[in-house]
Design brief:
This protein is about 80% helix and about 0% strand. It is mainly α.
């Protein structure tokens, strides 16, 4: 049985991707949206907003997966 304080490969993978998505969402995407707005490129604004919503959905999926990993499901 795995030590409950160890970090399994699968938990690491989930945390790594969550961190990358969170960094993109909180440090990058709004600048890209603003750049597209400033360039008057509404279709690109829509694309960035769709990506933002998708990444938020992915983070929620990964959060659920992490909870299952923690609880041994």
């Amino acid at each position: 049985m795995e030590n409950s304080t160890s970090l399994s490969n699968t938990m690491y993978d989930i945390l790594k991707v969550m961190g990358e998505d969170a960094e993109f969402l909180y440090d990058t995407i709004d600048k890209y949206i603003q750049d597209a707005q400033n360039a008057n490129k509404q279709e690109l604004v829509n694309t960035w907003n769709k990506i933002k919503n998708d990444r938020l959905s992915h983070i929620n999926m990964l959060k659920d997966a992490l909870e299952r990993e923690i609880h041994g499901a």
